[in-house]
Specification:
The structure holds 2 protein chains of 2 kinds. By secondary structure, chain A is α/β, with parallel strands linked by helices. Chain A is built from 21 helices and 18 strands. In chain A, strands 2-1-3-4-6-5 form a 6-stranded parallel β-sheet, with helices on both faces. In chain A, strands 8-7-9-12-13 form a 5-stranded parallel β-sheet, with helices on both faces. In chain A, strand 1, helix 2 and strand 2 form a beta-alpha-beta unit. The relative contact order of chain A is 0.10. By secondary structure, chain B is mostly helical. Chain B folds into 2 domains: about 100 residues, Cytochrome Bc1 Complex, Chain D, domain 2 (Orthogonal Bundle), CATH 1.10.760; about 70 residues, Cytochrome c-like domain (Cytochrome Bc1 Complex, Chain D, domain 2), CATH 1.10.760. In chain B, helix 6 packs across helix 9. The chains are: A alpha/beta, B mainly alpha.
C-alpha cells in the first residue's frame, strides 16, 4: 500500500498504522485515562512495511483507504438487513465505521442500544414480525456476556438473530488491558450451546462465505440465532491489493416438509377421528402458517388449541377451543401437535406439591401425532427440548411447510359421510367456543372497578381504544391472565408474537421495541403490556425507542413485584409452615415504588401515571395513542392487581 | 375424613400452581339440550358410580368431598369432571354425557346440605383485610379475591367458613397449605369476613366494554 501524500494527522497523532496495514492500539493502563500514543513494542508488525516512495517523507502510514471492514459491509449488505442493533464496542470499531460511512448507515441503519441484551432482544421481537433477522454487533466477550440471556431466549423461541462478535484475535497486537480482557480464543464458545451455528473466519473471503452461510442456516427451520466472529485485525487491515474477493450469492434452503407417506397416514387418522384436536405453539412461522392451519381445521372441522407461541389461529374462530383446552384434550381420540413446544404438558397433568406425580390427561387409546422441525435439530445441554413424550407418528419437518400437503392428503380421504359428521361436529364446537368466550367475559367482571386496577379491566379499556386500528400486541399475555387473547379478536399474524421462549425475563421491553421497529414501516399501532420487573432489567431501551422514533404504546402492568417469584417463595414458606408473611422480602419493588412515568420522561418518552382509578384509564390511553400515532413511543403507568 | 363443602370442587378446579401456566379456570363444553332432570340425575348419579366416592346424597365420604349442593356453575362442574385436578379420575363424555351431568347437577342442587360446624367467632373484616395481604392470599387470588389464572375467585366466598377452614389446611390442588401452625381458625374467620364484604360480580352483559 502506498504512503499517503500528506499525513492525515500530526506526527504526534494518536493513531499510527503500520506500513503493511497492521493496526496497533495502545490503551491506557487501567484507570480510564485517554488512550496513549501508540508505540511500537518489541513484537514487530506481522507484515513488512511497503517500500517508501519518498525517502525524505514519514515512513508511517496513517490512513487506510479500503479496510477489510468495508468488504465485511459488502457481505452484510448482500443479506439485506434493515437495521443493526448494537451498543458500540471497540472490538468492532472499524466495522462500525464502515457501516455508517462506507455503508451510508442504510440497510442496515444503526440503532443505538444501551445494553447488548436489548440489542439481541430487539432482534428477537423484530424477526417475529418481519420474518427475517436483524443484524446485531457485540463485543466478543463482555458484550456477548450481556447479550447471552437474550440469545438464549431467541434460541428457545426458535427465532433467527444474526450476531457479529468483535474480537481481538491476534495476541501479537493486543496493547493494553482492554484488548486482553476483551479477547477470547473462541469467542462463541460461551453461547455455542444455544446458537445454531457459529464461525470465526480468518480471512475476508472466509468471512464472506461464513457470512452468507450463517444467514442461510439461521433462516432454515428450525430457525435460531447464529454468531460470526469479526476479528479486529481482519476489520482494520487494508484489503490486499489485487485481491479477488467475492460475495457468494445467498440461496435460501427450502423448509423441510413432511414425508409424504407419513403425512398420508396422519391424514387418515385425522379424517377417521371422532374428536380430532390440533394443538400448536409455533406452526405459524409466517402468515402462510396461519392460513394453512385455518384451512386444515376447517376442512376437518377439528378443534384447535393455540398455545400462542405465535399467532397461529384466530381467537374468535368457532373451532378455537383454547379456552376449554382441558375438556377438549380429555375428549380427543387423535391429537396432532404442530410445532408444539411442550407436547408432554399438553397431554399430562402434574399433581402433588412436595412429591409431584403426573398422569395422562388423554383418554385410553388416543393417538398422538407430532410434526415439528425441532426433531431435526436438538442440542443437549440446555433442557429446552422438554420432557419426552411417546408418539404414534412423529414427523421431523417444519409444521408450516407440511400444512399444504397435509391439507391435500386430508381432502383426498374425506368421504360424503365424513363430511356430514364433520359438519355436525363443527356445530358443537362452535357452541363450545361461544360458551367459553362468554365465560371469559363473565370472569372478567370480577373486581371490575377495583383499585389496583384489574388486568381484565385494563385489557378491556385498551381494546376499546385500539380495536379499530391496525394494531399489533407484542407482549406476552401470560402475566395478565391472557385477558387480551380471551377478550380481543386476533386474526392476523402480526397481532401477536408470543413470549420469551426461554422465559428469561428482560425480554419484554426490548422485544416490544424491536417488534415496533418492524411494524413502523407498515403503519401499525404497536402495543405492549409491559411488566414492571421486566422493564427494570434494561430500561435504557426506552431511550432507544425515543431516539430512533419508534412508535410504541406501552401500558405498564405495574404490580410492584417480581410476582412470579413472590408466589414461589410464598409456596415455600407455606410448605415449611413458617414465615408466611415474609415472602415479600427480596421479591417486591416498593419503598420506594418506581415511578415509570418519570422514568419514561427521563428518556424522552411520553409518560403518564401512575393510574390507580380505572376511570382514568381511557383518557390516558387516548392521549398516549395520539403521541404514538405521531411517531413516538408513549408509556402509561397503571397500578394493577398482581395478576 | 371430615365432610367438605362442595366448594372444594371449585377450589380443586380453579387452583393452579404459579409455576405452571394455568389454563382457564373452568371449562365450558357444549350446552346440553335441556335443563336438568332431578329424577334422571339421581339415577345417573348412582349408575355412573358417583355414589361410590361421594355418597348417595353427594354428602361426601372418606374418599371424596361433599358436592351437594354444588358450589360451581354447571359448566364449571362439567369442565372439572372432564379434567379434574385432584384425585378424581377424568370422566369423558363417552362415559357420562353433558346432558347426564346436567341432570346429576340438578339432582345435587335439590339436596339439602348436611349440617356444618358453626365458626367459633364472628370474623373481623378489617383485620381480615390486613391478614389477606400479610399472609399472601392476594398473590394468587388478587387483592379483592376476585381471582386470576393462579387462583379462583373467592371474594365473595362461594363456600362456607367451615369448608374454607378445612380446605386451606389440606388443599388438594396446587394451593399451598396454610397449616394451623401459621394461621389460626380465627384468622381465617377474619379473612372470610373480609371476603364476604365484596358484592358478587355483575353480569358481563351490563358492562359495555365487555360487549363491544
Amino acid at each position: 500500500m502506498g504512503r499517503p501524500e500528506n499525513d492525515s494527522v500530526d506526527r504526534r497523532s494518536f493513531l499510527k498504522v503500520a506500513a503493511a496495514g497492521t493496526a496497533a492500539l495502545v490503551t491506557s493502563p487501567a484507570g480510564g485515562a485517554p488512550p496513549e500514543l501508540p508505540h511500537r513494542n518489541a513484537s514487530a508488525p506481522i507484515l513488512p512495511k511497503p517500500p517508501v516512495a519518498d525517502a525524505g517523507a514519514s515512513a508511517e502510514v496513517l490512513t487506510v483507504d479500503r479496510p477489510g471492514s468495508d468488504f465485511m459491509v459488502d457481505v452484510l449488505k448482500s443479506l439485506d438487513f434493515e437495521y443493526l442493533c448494537a451498543n458500540p464496542g471497540n472490538s468492532y470499531r472499524s466495522l462500525h465505521e464502515s457501516l455508517i460511512n462506507y455503508g451510508g448507515n442504510k440497510a442496515p441503519e444503526f440503532i443505538t442500544c444501551c445494553h447488548e441484551e436489548s440489542s439481541v432482544a430487539m432482534g428477537h421481537g423484530y424477526a417475529k414480525i418481519e420474518g427475517k433477522p436483524l443484524l446485531v454487533c457485540v463485543h466478543g466477550t463482555v458484550g456477548l456476556q450481556h447479550a447471552s440471556m437474550a440469545i438464549y431466549d431467541a434460541f428457545c423461541d426458535r427465532v433467527p438473530v444474526y450476531i457479529v462478535l468483535g474480537n481481538f484475535s491476534d495476541a501479537g497486537v493486543r496493547y493494553g488491558q482492554v484488548d486482553w480482557t476483551h479477547a477470547a480464543q473462541d469467542p462463541a464458545a460461551m453461547i455455542r450451546d444455544f446458537v445454531k451455528w457459529d464461525d470465526n473466519p480468518l480471512s475476508l473471503q472466509g468471512f464472506a462465505e461464513a457470512g452468507v452461510r450463517a444467514y442461510k442456516i439461521a433462516m432454515t427451520p428450525p430457525t435460531m440465532p447464529v454468531a460470526l466472529v469479526a476479528g479486529r485485525e481482519l476489520q482494520e487491515r487494508p484489503i490486499p491489493e489485487n485481491s479477488n474477493l467475492t460475495v457468494p450469492r445467498l440461496v435460501m434452503t427450502s423448509p423441510p416438509a413432511g414425508d409424504p407417506g407419513a403425512v398420508s397416514e396422519v391424514a387418515r387418522l385425522l379424517v377417521a377421528a371422532e374428536n380430532p384436536v390440533l394443538v400448536t405453539d409455533r406452526v405459524a412461522r409466517t402468515p402462510a402458517g396461519l392460513a394453512g392451519l385455518i384451512e386444515l381445521a376447517e376442512v376437518l372441522q377439528a378443534s384447535v388449541i393455540d398455545r400462542n407461541g405465535r399467532m397461529n389461529f384466530p381467537t374468535r374462530h368457532p373451532l378455537n377451543q383454547t379456552e376449554r383446552a382441558e375438556a377438549t384434550i380429555a375428549d380427543a381420540d387423535v391429537i396432532a401437535g404442530l410445532e408444539l413446544t411442550d407436547f408432554w404438558s399438553s397431554v399430562n397433568s402434574v399433581h402433588g406439591q412436595v412429591w409431584p406425580e403426573s398422569r395422562p390427561t388423554t383418554k385410553p387409546g388416543a393417538k398422538l401425532i407430532s410434526i415439528t422441525a425441532n426433531d431435526l435439530y436438538m442440542k443437549s445441554n440446555y433442557q429446552d427440548f422438554q420432557r419426552y413424550q411417546p408418539m404414534d407418528i412423529a414427523i421431523a419437518a417444519d409444521g408450516e411447510a407440511t400444512l399444504p400437503s397435509l391439507v391435500e392428503a386430508v381432502k383426498l380421504q374425506i368421504t360424503g359421510d365424513r363430511k356430514r359428521l364433520f359438519a355436525d361436529r363443527g356445530v358443537k364446537l362452535a357452541k363450545g367456543h361461544q360458551q367459553a368466550m362468554q365465560q371469559s367475559r363473565d370472569l372478567a367482571t370480577s373486581g371490575w372497578d377495583a383499585s389496583p386496577i384489574s388486568t381484565a379491566r385494563m385489557s378491556a379499556e385498551l381494546w376499546a381504544q385500539i380495536k379499530d386500528e391496525d394494531w399489533s400486541l407484542v407482549s406476552n399475555c401470560k402475566f395478565v391472565n391472557r385477558w387480551p387473547l380471551r377478550l380481543w379478536s386476533f386474526d392476523k399474524h402480526y397481532q401477536y408474537i408470543g413470549n420469551e421462549g426461554g422465559y428469561g425475563i428482560g425480554y419484554g421491553a426490548p422485544a416490544a421495541v424491536g417488534a415496533a421497529l418492524a411494524n413502523r414501516k407498515h403503519g401499525r399501532l404497536t402495543v405492549a403490556i409491559q411488566n414492571d420487573g421486566d422493564l427494570m432489567f434494561a430500561p435504557g431501551v426506552l431511550w432507544t425507542a425515543a431516539h430512533s422514533r419508534i412508535p410504541l404504546l406501552i401500558i405498564m402492568h405495574n404490580n410492584r413485584a417480581y410476582h412470579q417469584e413472590l408466589m414461589q417463595v410464598q409456596i415455600m414458606a407455606n410448605q415449611h409452615s413458617r414465615g408466611i408473611t415474609r415472602a415479600t422480602l427480596g421479591t417486591t419493588l416498593v419503598d420506594p415504588p418506581i415511578d415509570y412515568s418519570k422514568l419514561a420522561q427521563s428518556m424522552g418518552v411520553h409518560g403518564e401515571g401512575p393510574i390507580s382509578d380505572p376511570q382514568d384509564l381511557a383518557p390516558a390511553i387516548k392521549r398516549a395513542i395520539e403521541v404514538v400515532k405521531g411517531g413516538d413511543p408513549a408509556l402509561v403507568d397503571v397500578l394493577t392487581q398482581p395478576r | 375424613m371430615a365432610r367438605w363443602n362442595s366448594v372444594v370442587v371449585a377450589l380443586m378446579l380453579m387452583a393452579a400452581c404459579p409455576c405452571v401456566e394455568a389454563q382457564n379456570s373452568a371449562e365450558k363444553p357444549s350446552a346440553p339440550k335441556t335443563a336438568g332432570s332431578v329424577e334422571n340425575g339421581k339415577r345417573y348419579f348412582a349408575s355412573a358410580g358417583c355414589i361410590t366416592c361421594h355418597g348417595p346424597q353427594g354428602h361426601g365420604t372418606a374418599l371424596a368431598p361433599q358436592i351437594s349442593p354444588p358450589p360451581l356453575e354447571l359448566q364449571a362442574v362439567i369442565g372439572y369432571v372432564r379434567q379434574p385436578t385432584g384425585k378424581m379420575p377424568a370422566i369423558p363424555s363417552s362415559t357420562v354425557s353433558d346432558q347426564e351431568l346436567t341432570d346429576i347437577y340438578a339432582f345435587l342442587k335439590s339436596i339439602t346440605p348436611a349440617a356444618e360446624a358453626a365458626p367459633t367467632a364472628a370474623g373481623d373484616a378489617a383485620n381480615g383485610k390486613k391478614l389477606f395481604s400479610a399472609y399472601g392470599c392476594y398473590e394468587c387470588h388478587d387483592r379483592q379475591g376476585q381471582g386470576a389464572s393462579t387462583g379462583p375467585r373467592i371474594g365473595p366466598p362461594r363456600i362456607s367458613l367451615a369448608a374454607v377452614l378445612h380446605y386451606v389446611r389440606a388443599p388438594t390442588g396446587q394451593m399451598p397449605p396454610y397449616t394451623a401452625k401459621v394461621v389460626s381458625d380465627q384468622d381465617l374467620a377474619d379473612i372470610y369476613a373480609f371476603l364476604s364484604s365484596f358484592p358478587p360480580p355483575v353480569p358481563s352483559t351490563s358492562i359495555p366494554l365487555l360487549n363491544p
